[in-house]
Design a protein that fits this description.
Number of helices: 5
InterPro entries: Tnp_DDE_dom
Number of domains: 1
Pfam families: DDE_Tnp_1_6
Protein name: Transposase DDE domain-containing protein
Oligomer: single chain
Strand order of the largest sheet: 1-2
Length: 187
C-alpha cells in the first residue's frame, strides 16, 4: 500500500456509513485503490438495507444518494447501475475539482461533466459536504477509540474479522448511547 512515506505491506478498509453514523458495511481488500470497490460496497449497502427493512418491518426503507470521494472516480463508477451517487471529481477540498463548471453540460456531455455540474450546484455542494461529516468521524472513531490504526493479526481473513468486530462494537455502543439499552433487546 502506498503511504506518505513510501510503501508498506497493508490492506485497504472500506466503510459505508449511514447518515445516523451506523456502519452499514465494512470490507477489507488487498487493492491499493478505491475505484474497484464502489459496486461491491453498493451491493453490501443493499444487503444491509434489506436486513434493516426485514428487521424493522419498514418496506419504505431505501438507499438515498451515496457519497464517494475522488478515489472512486471513474467512468464505470459514474455510469454503473445502482443508487444515485455523488463522486468527487478531484482531490482538492472542492468536491468539483479545480475548475467547477458554470453552466449545465450539453446532453451529449460525458458522465464526468454531468457529475462535475451536479457537484457545482448548491444542492450538490450541500449534499456532498455531508460525506466528510458522516464518514470521517466514524473512520476516526475506529482508528482512535477502537485502536484500529493497524490490524492485530496477519492475513486478509483475520483483518476482515477484526474490522467487522470493530464495526459491530461501534454500532452496538452507538445504539446503546443514542437509543438506550432497550434498542439492543429483541422482542
Amino acid at each position: 500500500m502506498p503511504t506518505r512515506t513510501g510503501f508498506i505491506a497493508g490492506l485497504n478498509t472500506q466503510l459505508a456509513v449511514a447518515a445516523d453514523y451506523l456502519i452499514l458495511a465494512v470490507e477489507v481488500v488487498q487493492d491499493t485503490g478505491d475505484v474497484n470497490q464502489l459496486e461491491p460496497m453498493h451491493d453490501k449497502i443493499d444487503d444491509a438495507v434489506q436486513t434493516l427493512r426485514d428487521a424493522t418491518a419498514n418496506p419504505d426503507l431505501a438507499v438515498g444518494t451515496t457519497l464517494f470521494d475522488a478515489g472512486y472516480n471513474s467512468h464505470d463508477n459514474l455510469t454503473a447501475p445502482g443508487p444515485d451517487r455523488l463522486i468527487a471529481q478531484g482531490k482538492t477540498h472542492q468536491p468539483t475539482g479545480p475548475t467547477p463548471p458554470t453552466q449545465p453540460p450539453h446532453p451529449n456531455a460525458t458522465a464526468r461533466e454531468h457529475m462535475a455540474w451536479r457537484l457545482s450546484t448548491p444542492e450538490g455542494k450541500t449534499l456532498y459536504r455531508k460525506r466528510g461529516a458522516t464518514v470521517e468521524p466514524v473512520n476516526a472513531h475506529l482508528k482512535d477509540r477502537r485502536g484500529l490504526r493497524r490490524f492485530s493479526r496477519r492475513g486478509l481473513t483475520a483483518a476482515k474479522a477484526e474490522a467487522h468486530l470493530a464495526a459491530a462494537v461501534t454500532n452496538l455502543l452507538r445504539l446503546a448511547t443514542t437509543h438506550g439499552p432497550t434498542a439492543l433487546t429483541t422482542a
